[in-house]
Amino acid sequence: MTSASVCPLCARNFNMLLWKHACDCCRKTVCDDCAPKVNGRRECRACAAKAKEQQSRQRNPSNPASAEEERAARMRAAEERMRAEQQRGRPQSRGVQRPAPPVTAPPKEFSLQQERDCGTPSPSPHAGAPTRANAEENPVLAAALRRRQQEQLGMKANWENSSEKTRLLTAILEVLHQRGEEEPFGLRSMDEAKLQAYLRYVKSKDKKSGSV
After folding, report:
1. Buried (b) or exposed (e) across 9-24, using 16+ Cβ within 10 A?
2. Burial of 7 (0-12, 13-18, 19+ CB in 10 A)
3. Which residues contact 67 (CB under 8 A, 6 or more apart)?
4. For every one of its 212 residues, what pLDDT tens digit does the chain have, with 9 covering 90 and above?
5. For the chain, what percentages of helix, strand and coil (3-state, to nearest 5) are there?
6. Rounded to two decimals, what is the model's pTM?
């Protein structure tokens, strides 16, 4: 203990009522109020403040690197648990549903094959009910409508025409053109046997008209 007469912390003079003591930590001479005795040990206010600060640092570390490492370790542990659950076949969430298979439109070839098997052409979107009603009253419009249907039938029939069928159709159309007659409805949809019979019929009409 030094022979100082003033407390360095509170700057009060030592006397009979304000005793001086030595701090057990820093060994400075301070008054009784600035270094109270706690648990059999005297510490001045400066040493007590330093001790509290060290304790708070130990409880709450302020190192950002250690906090980031701890967060990364938790994330790795969570990922490992998820992988383990997937390997065991456990679903991650009950709300997850399998994606529905995409809906694909039927190919156009299938619809064309159905039309060929049935032997009937698909109705044209432009040929509606008013056109057919007017065609019954107007003969010119009716003839144009029949010609259009024949062309549609002819286009679809030509897809599967053989060389023999093409030859028969050409011969029949030449005879009809020479006589100034129109192509009958459904001519192009006939098979080869019917076309041969119709060609003989047309030629026989020419012979009958020539003999008369």
Report:
1. beeeebeeeeebbebe
2. buried
3. 61
4. 567 788 888 888 888 888 888 888 888 888 888 888 888 788 888 888 888 888 887 776 555 567 788 888 889 888 888 888 888 765 555 555 555 666 565 555 555 555 555 555 555 545 444 455 555 667 777 778 887 877 776 555 555 568 888 998 899 898 888 888 888 888 888 888 888 898 888 888 766 665 54
5. 55, 5, 40
6. 0.26
25: closest CA among 51, 57, 52, 56?
51
CA distance 120 to 153: 8
Q: How many residues does the chain have?
A: 212
175-181-185 Cα angle (round to 5): 100
- The alpha-helical segments, DSSP class H, found in the chain are 45-59, 64-87, 108-118, 129-137, 139-158, 163-179, 192-211
Assess contact for 144 and 152: CB atoms under 8 A: no
- Does an H or E element contain 30, and which? strand 29-31
Q: Are 156 and 119 spatial neighbours (Cβ–Cβ below 8 Å)?
A: no
**Coil, helix or strand at residue 194:** helix
- Give every CB contact of residue 88 below 8 A, 6+ residues apart in sequence: none
Nearest one of 129, 117, 198 to 156, comparing CA atoms? 117
- Phi, psi angles (nearest 5°) of residue 78: -65, -40
